[in-house]
Amino acid sequence: MDDLEFHTRAHSNPFDEDPDFRHALTGREDRLRLLNELQQLDHSIRQINRQIAVPARLKHKLAPPDSRSWLGRRAFAFAASLVLVAGFVFSTMQYRPSASELALHDAMLEHVYNEAPRYEQVTAPISWLEVETVLADAGVSLHQPEGDETLIITFAKVCGLGGTSRGAHLVTMGKNGPVSVILVRSTPIGRSLDVKDTRFQGRIVPSNDGNMAVIGEKAEELQRLEQIISSNVEWSI
Amino acid sequence: MGNKKESKRNKMSETPVSRPISLGNNRKKRYESLVDKFYQDVFRYAYWLTRNPTVAEDLVQETFLRAWRSFDSLQSDDAAKAWLFTILRRENARMYERYRPELVDIDDVSIQEDDRNEPDQRQKLSELHYAILQLEKEYRDPLMLQVVGGFSGKEIAEILDLNNNTVMTRLFRARSKLRDIMDPGAASDEETGDDAHEELC
User: Fold this and answer.
1) Partners of residue B103 in chain A, C-beta under 8 Å
2) Which domains, from first to last, does chain B contain?
3) Looking at residue A138, which CATH number applies to its domain?
4) Is A49 on the interface with B (CB under 8 A)?
5) CA distance B46 to chain A (A)
6) How many domains does one find in chain A?
7) What is the residue range of A79's domain?
8) Interface pTM, i.e. ipTM
9) How would you write chain A as a 3-class SS string?
10) Using the beta-carbon criterion (under 8 Å), do B102 and A103 form an inter-chain contact?
11) Whole-prediction pTM value?
């Protein structure tokens, strides 16, 4: 087997068990090294995959439709009616986000993941003047609160979100790590949208002429920061 | 050619074929065993496709509901996983892709930090996660089906409705690109997609 064929087959399937492929490894350290590297790549992808948390109640929700009730048909019908009413009430509070809202959610989350390696390396506060410059560039302003609510910002950048919107990305320190505050001048979403992820959590909140996201690590308490930002933000005309 | 495609579709079809319907409890038990065995894999694959756990969960529920309704078209338990993934892909296209075309090429997946990993290893996994994210869908899709789904080239070809050679070429390019993103120069003789690491800020 020549090098080109080996190279192609190793990349197509590093766990190829065909005898001719295995035989092509004999006495070839360079081929073994390449194969080990490619197999390690696959192991890492599987490791990432295994870390995706499966919702705890998902299996229960997948039961066949006729086995979900223990009440009997009438009781089930009654319960179903109640569920419908409750569902209607619930849906007014937890409505299904639109495609554009989901796109904003994904863009925000993607952006936080992209920037995390950079903002995690800086912990020293930056000047408020620097923060204001970034905010102005993104078409938004934020009054620095006083007293206990004074914001200590360690990172401020103007960012492209989803390739279309321009926003300001600020980072402040929470109890469990850095917390991102992203202010985007764009059409406000209909209602607040939870950001849920295996690592991050937070909320995207419509705010006058734009949207504001406060996103921190899973265990972070974000409500107070959200209130502080919310009551101090102003959107430029 | 046409007949080959037709027979392929029949094999994975959701529409019941001529197989006799299994009765009562046997059908239910078979279905429950299927759920038990595959629901985690199906959810994780849905998560890779949609990169939103809430949407992925909805998608998985819809997938299994359809699987239950057309359970009798599943001709062999050995084909169950590929059959579920095919339904999932179809449901994703029906329910979400047409409403979210802007997300087709920027699918993402988030990973949970594993404290058992060393910081260096966590960083590498994080970088690999971004590298997978940057892959074009046509390369990412067969790669995830092979590595995560455990499917053979032939099975991937059936799921994606491609020929086997195309699948192998895409797998080759997927790994070449990943290697180049992770270690520029290591796979310099391959196509590398240098613009794939674009930064947002």
Assistant:
1) 102-103, 106
2) 25-102 (1.10.1740.10), 117-201 (1.10.10.10)
3) 3.40.1000
4) yes
5) 11
6) 3
7) 59-93
8) 0.73
9) CCHHHHHHHHHHCCCCCCHHHHHCCCCCHHHHHHHHHHHHHHHHHHHHHHCCCCCCCHHHHCCCHHHCCCCCHHHHHHHHHHHHHHHHHHHHHCCCCCHHHHHHHHHHHHHHHHHHHHHCCCCCCCCHHHHHHHHHHCCEEECCCCHHHCCCEEEEEEEEECCCEEEEEEEEEECCEEEEEEEECCCCCCCCEEEECCCEEEEEEEECCEEEEEEEECCCCCHHHHHHHHHHEEECC
10) yes
11) 0.53
